[in-house]
Amino acid sequence: MAESLYVHIPFCAHICGYCDFTKVIYQEEWASSYIERLKEQLDSLNIDKPLKTVYVGGGTPTALPSSLLKVILSKLSTYLNKNDYEFTVEANPESLDDEKLSIMRECGVNRLSIGVESTHLKFLKLMGRPHTFEEAKVKVELAKTHGFTNISCDLIYGLPTETLEDVKQDVVGLLSLNVPHLSTYCLSVNPGTVWHNKGYKEMDDGDAADQYDLILSEFRKAGYKRYEVSNFSKPGYESRHNLVYWRDEEYYAAGLGASGYLNGERLTFTKNLLSYLKGSFEGEREKLSDKDKKEEFFLTHLRLEEGFEDEDYIKRFGVSFFEKFEKQYESLKSDGLLTSEKGRIHCTDKGMLLLDRVLISLF
Ligand code: SF4
After folding, report:
1. Distance between CA atoms of residues 60 and 348, nearest Å
2. Does residue 272 belong to any structural domain of this protein?
């Protein structure tokens, strides 16, 4: 039974050139009906067990005005397992303020994920981000004064013309924020995005790997543990909600374009805002085949430093991983990509970097 919920707020004050999330420019008249429909959709999910994790992402949840933010967060707070929960809201520096932080605290939000993205003004501008790193720093401090201790900040690397020296400065800047969780993403240029249409290219794999290695070693030196290929935390600050995805567990979802995973079925709600506003939420439903489930299992678990237990593999698929993938395991092991300890299989540092190669040989 799912104990987690993802909620999507698609509004943004601006559109970033590389963005391929489900998003629309904020419009007051859309936002209030959206929140009404979202509440109806939440009711229709019939969530009857208190939730351990709720994650409000976007879009930009803090692009909502305080009044609407309060409406939706109050509603979501009623689903929480009050004794043991993680309630995360994504925020962008330019739209995070005293009032919204107070509302979040009142509604029980106990984790913030702030889109810092870069310390360099030229890259923030290139991405279409309206904040400066100075502003991001101020907002992180403001969140701390409101009592938030569980804060995550995002960093994007692999940007066009970005050098290793630029990334080094980003790392120093991010570490100076003194937050317990950091996420790093290599820029990808996906079809349908402004940057793709303009012909922007992704960074060469070798250069991107050098930037990742630098981030990994500096974050580790600073006491952060990489628990997932792109995520680093101080002990006890791993994202419980995202671990649900990476451990391939089930979760509810609500909102425009949001995807949930329930009863072995992946549901993605409509990405058409007008349909959504009319209360027509249905999108795509995909019943996962046995092959899909096995691939998903590797896709998710092998991103984690902890990997997976053979016992868990046996429970789900009725056969030992070592038996089923004997040849592939031996070959990946001798290439230094995969390893195991006490029945737990996981990638090595090299395997994390060459995750696609590991996955291809297991599919
Ligand atoms: S703020 Fe986030 S969701 Fe909105 S356009 Fe930029 S990257 Fe996309």
Report:
1. 35
2. no
